[in-house]
Structures are given as structure tokens and as C-alpha cells.
Design a protein that fits this description.
The complex is a heterodimer. Chain A is α/β, with parallel strands linked by helices. Chain A contains 13 helices and 15 strands. Helix content of chain A is 41%, strand content 17%. The chains are: A alpha/beta, B alpha/beta.
């Protein structure tokens, strides 16, 4: 597709931006099975392959299970590997996700977030990636098209970092971000090449001079040591994410941290929320601030590993917090983000009041008025010190 | 949220309104604005009602929700007027839903703006209605009923968001690889005729 730059800006959908980033990364192998709403990522990237714009070996497969299996094989062989999927596609990859992380393979996957069946629904929520939260993949959530594009390059660096060596999932909101054209600044190819560098696998399976084994049977005498190492590796990833976000900022002028704080420093009430809905919430914050109300936002960018201490530090002076989840963990006790946040705050001596609000499932619109309503409720909690409803669904 | 100009497109699948919103977004970006262009997707069936949205601003746009109070409403298929579009999709309820008193409608029809004002059931004196026979223009200019480009031309005339020249420049530059020169010329003709033939009160 023709991409015309105006004053350094182009208008691209989230999917086109991801496909373009993949073209610039030029991975050795991409195995994918297209699914709504991430279809255009695979469609446009396969055009780049067909037109000879990349050197990638593109493997067409008959399912997402096979897509991830092929990614695992290629990554173990020593290739730089990428794929993209959504919803049921990610669900079908399930058992292979754990194998990718357990074998410490630095695969980069774009998940265009979409609800899970049943009932069938093609629109945005986070149940697909939240379902994969314990699979050992690093997860980064993107608010805008620009951020999704920028995150993909950082994901390559994070995954391949020798202290980490784990797969990374970059998430963006289905349709809301994937199909919306927004202004973004593209980075020139050479700068990307320099930033991500050449990939040299540390223990490639095909290096027959230095034979290695991947995914071998382990018995009770060794399995737990593997898992402990994996656990330590994903914990180390936190600092690597910070360092690479900073380096990205130094090079390209857009710095990324573990989270974004928006007018949080003096806030009495705060919403914690992921991805595109944070943008809408910012508009609500600006309106309420004009009316003199002290409200703010915490938007975690890194969800796995979960930056417990940093999040607790960011929320320690807030009096009332609502965690808005675009997924329900069906525990009867709020959404997955709520449980992490609430747990992170436990170590604080003075804890804010925290409530869980589930919103926007299956693409239900989340609007400025919805955020305002939550803030009003929080300011009530701030005044009275009492929570009336700990958990509930909103945007109904 | 007075800093945004918000636009809503109504049509039926295959009438090109998603592409029109995209072309408008690209063109506004070309004139130095921040833009959003996004469709409301549903199960894809030819002829099904669809909506698409634009936001245009001098500032970065952070809203990521549907447009509910559009200043400009473009209706590519007048048979959608009076229909409840709520259904399974989250559509706004109907083509007039949420519009402010000073809204501007652009309708693809051979009827007059006065007739459409009545058919739309409008009450506010501040509301303006423009009409053009975009289907006829497109049939003559490109040989297909594709009302999107004439309607873009009409929007350039009516709204202060984009000029006809930038629409044409953008189309030439971004679509010349995709379409042959006959289609490019036909659509430029259609945009220009849409600009010239839109009439309003």
C-alpha cells in the first residue's frame, strides 16, 4: 500500500502499522493464520513477502495451533520469528504458548484483542490475552496506533535480551485501534535496523557443532528448577522493559515506561485502565479537572511481569481507586487487573479503597460519560470512606 | 469536546463509505490536522447498513469511542432515513440520533433540501440540509453506483474541514497504484461534480 508521509506523519490503521513494523523488522520466519480483527496484519505482511520487500519465510498453516508450533520450531532452530492473532486464534494456540515460554523462545506475537466465544463476538475485549496471562509470555498493552507500532520494535529487543529470552505479546484493541486510522510517525528503516540489531540465537538447534536439546522430558528431579529459572527470567524482564523504553525514547523521542501516570500525582481518585479506553478516560479527567476535581489515571503498559512495587508506589497517595477491566476472570471477585492491583496495594501501610468495574465486553462502547460516572462514585467513596459496591459491571 | 469536528457516515455495505471516511482522514492529515477514521464493523453482508466516523482536530485526539454527537452527517442511502439502526450493532439508533441543533446533513438523493429536511423529521432552525444526486453523478462519471466520492466533494463545499484540491491531490497520490487512470479521472470528476452540484438551504 502507498504510504505518504506529511510533515513526518502518516495515517494508518493499527493493523497496517503493525504489518509495516513487521516489514521493517524483517523477521526470518512468520507463521500465521489470519483471524478477525487481526486479519490485515497477516494479509498486508504476506503482500510484503510476495512483493519481495522482506526476506521472511512465510509459512501458511491450517490453524493457529500449527502457526505457533511452526513459530516454536523456527525459533528453536535459531530464527527471529513473529506472528499475529486474536481471540479464538490465541485460544487455539494455548498449549503451544506454554511451550514457547518454557523453551525460552523469543517469539513476538501481536494480539489484536477480541472477545472469546460463546456467544460468538468479533469485537474488542481483553479476555483473550488475559486468558494467556499465566502462560509465561511478557504482555505489553498499547493505547494508540503509534504505541502499538513502537511497542513491536521494543518487544523484539525485550524478547531477545539475554537476561530475558522469553516470548512477548504486544496487545492492541480490536477494531478500536486495529481498524482506526490515526496519525502516526514512522521510523526510517535504517534506524529500526540499528535499534533491533542482528539476531544471533544463543543456542540454535541447527548449530550441529554445539548440539542442544529443547523441550526434553523432565522428571520431578529437574522440572521445578526449569520453572524457577523461567520465573526469575520474567521477573528480570521488568527492568529490561524500562531500559529499552528509555533507550527508545532517547533515539526516537517517544519514551515508554512500565506504566503511564496521567494527572495522578495529586489525585484523590484514580481509574486504573488498559489500552485505548485510557485515552477516553483522559478526556474525562481533563473535564473533571476543569471543575476542580482531583482525578487521575494509571495506565499499566506492562502487565506481565506485573510491576507490583511501582504500581503500589504510584497509587499510594490516592484515596479511592477503580480498576476497570475489559475482561472478567469469572472468579466472582472482579476482573484480572483488579486482583493484581488490589494485591499490589496490600503491602502499603495506608491503602486506598479499591473497587472493580467490568466494562466494554464484546466491544460495548466505553464513553467519556462512563468514566465521569466512575470518578463521581470514587469521589463519593473518598468523602465517606465507604464502598457501597465493591464489584459491578458498567456500560450496561 | 468542542475541539473536535465529528463526522458520521451512513450507508450500506459496498457503497464505499468506509473508504470515504478513510480518504477524508488522509486528506485532513495532509492539511496538517490530527485525524481519526474508523468504521463500525459488523457481520459483512452486501447491502447491510454500515456507519463510519471521522474526528478532525488541531490537537492529538485521545478519544477512542464512537461518535455520538456528529456535527456533520452524510447519508449515502436515503432509504436508511427513519430506520432504527440499533439492531445487533451499536449503531446510533438512526441517522439523526444525537445530532446537535446546528448539525449539517448531506444526503444522496434527487430530492430537494427542503423535502429532505421534512423526511429527516428535523425541527431545529439551525440545522442545514444539503442534497446531491451522488448515485447519478457516480454512474455518469465512473459507471458505477459509488456515491462516496461525490459526497466527499459535497463535504468539501459545505464544511470547513477540507478543500476539494486536497481531496483530489490525496486521491491522485494514494490511489494511483491501486486504480487505473480512467478510474482516477472518473472519481476526480465525481468529486468535483459533487462539490458543484450539492445544493442546500
Amino acid at each position: 500500500m502507498a504510504i505518504t508521509m506529511i510533515k513526518g506523519q502518516v495515517g494508518l490503521t493499527g493493523n497496517s502499522a503493525i504489518a509495516y513494523a513487521m516489514k521493517q523488522i524483517n523477521p526470518d520466519v512468520c507463521a500465521a493464520y489470519p483471524i478477525t480483527p487481526s486479519t490485515q496484519v497477516v494479509e498486508e505482511f504476506s503482500s510484503y513477502v510476495a512483493d519481495g520487500k522482506v526476506d521472511t519465510e512465510f509459512i501458511t498453516v491450517e490453524s493457529e495451533h500449527s502457526a505457533m508450533s511452526a513459530c516454536i520450531g523456527a525459533s528453536a532452530a535459531g530464527a527471529r520469528v513473529m506472528t499475529a492473532t486474536s481471540s479464538q486464534g490465541l485460544a487455539l494456540m494455548w498449549e503451544m504458548l506454554y511451550i514457547a515460554s518454557g523453551m525460552r523462545l523469543p517469539i513476538v506475537l501481536t494480539d489484536v484483542n477480541r472477545a472469546l466465544s460463546a456467544p460468538i463476538n468479533i469485537h474488542c475485549d481483553h479476555s483473550d490475552s488475559m486468558g494467556a496471562r499465566d502462560s509465561g509470555w511478557i504482555q505489553i498493552y498499547s493505547e494508540t496506533v503509534q504505541e502499538a507500532y513502537d511497542n513491536l520494535f521494543q518487544a523484539v529487543r525485550i524478547a531477545e535480551n539475554e537476561k530475558v529470552l522469553l516470548p512477548v505479546m504486544v496487545c492492541l484493541d480490536g477494531f478500536i485501534t486495529s481498524h482506526a486510522i490515526e496519525n502516526i510517525s514512522l521510523i526510517v528503516d535504517d534506524d529500526i535496523k540499528q535499534f533491533i540489531g542482528e539476531y544471533k540465537a544463543q543456542h540454535p538447534l541447527l548449530d550441529t557443532d554445539h548440539p542442544v536439546t529443547y523441550g526434553a522430558m523432565t522428571l520431578p528431579d529437574t522440572y521445578i528448577e526449569f520453572k524457577r529459572q523461567q520465573s526469575e527470567a520474567i521477573a528480570r524482564a521488568k527492568d529490561v522493559v524500562s531500559e529499552i523504553g528509555k533507550e527508545f525514547g532517547n533515539r526516537f523521542g517517544r519514551e515508554y515506561g512500565l506504566m503511564e501516570k496521567y494527572k495522578l500525582d495529586d489525585a484523590e481518585a484514580a481509574i486504573v485502565i488498559l489500552s485505548s479506553a485510557a485515552g477516553t478516560t483522559k478526556v474525562a479527567v481533563d473535564e473533571l479537572r476543569k471543575a476542580g476535581k482531583k482525578v487521575g489515571i494509571l495506565r499499566p503498559r506492562l502487565f506481565r511481569p506485573f510491576p507490583f512495587e511501582e504500581i503500589a508506589g504510584a497509587l499510594k497517595n490516592v484515596k479511592a481507586v477503580a480498576v476497570l477491566d475489559r475482561a472478567d476472570s469469572m472468579s466472582g471477585f472482579g476482573g484480572p487487573l483488579f486482583n493484581e492491583i488490589r494485591s499490589a496495594l496490600y503491602e502499603l501501610e495506608k491503602r486506598p479503597k479499591v473497587v472493580s468495574r467490568i466494562f466494554g465486553l464484546g466491544g460495548r462502547d466505553y464513553m467519556v460519560k462512563d468514566a465521569v460516572q466512575v470518578f463521581d462514585e470514587l469521589l463519593g467513596i473518598f468523602k465517606t470512606g465507604k464502598i457501597e459496591t465493591l464489584m459491578k459491571y458498567i456500560t450496561l | 469536546m468542542a475541539d473536535y469536528i465529528e463526522i458520521r457516515w451512513h450507508g450500506r455495505a459496498q457503497q464505499g463509505i468506509v473508504t470515504a471516511a478513510k480518504m477524508l482522514g488522509e486528506s485532513c492529515l495532509r492539511s496538517g490536522k490530527y485525524v481519526q477514521a474508523f468504521p463500525e464493523f459488523g457481520p459483512e453482508r452486501m447491502g447491510a447498513p454500515v456507519a463510519a466516523y471521522n474526528r478532525v482536530s488541531d490537537e492529538p485526539i485521545r478519544l477512542h469511542c464512537r461518535v455520538t454527537e456528529p456535527k456533520y452527517v452524510l447519508i449515502a442511502d436515503p432509504t436508511l432515513i427513519g430506520m432504527s439502526l440499533s439492531g445487533g450493532m451499536e449503531s446510533s439508533g438512526g441517522v439523526t440520533a444525537g445530532v446537535p441543533d446546528n448539525a449539517v446533513f448531506i444526503v444522496n438523493t434527487s430530492k430537494s433540501p427542503q423535502e429532505m429536511y421534512k423526511e429527516l423529521g428535523l425541527k431545529s432552525k439551525g440545522t442545514r440540509v444539503y442534497t446531491l444526486d451522488a448515485s447519478k453523478i457516480s454512474l455518469e462519471a465512473i459507471g458505477r453506483n459509488m456515491p462516496n466520492t461525490p459526497m466527499l466533494g459535497a463535504l468539501a463545499k459545505v464544511a470547513n474541514v477540507i478543500t476539494l484540491d486536497i481531496l483530489i491531490d490525496n486521491f491522485k497520490e494514494n490511489y494511483s497504484k491501486k486504480f487505473n487512470s480512467k478510474i482516477i479521472e472518473g472519481n476526480i470528476n465525481a468529486m468535483t461534480r459533487g462539490f458543484n452540484e450539492a445544493k442546500g438551504e
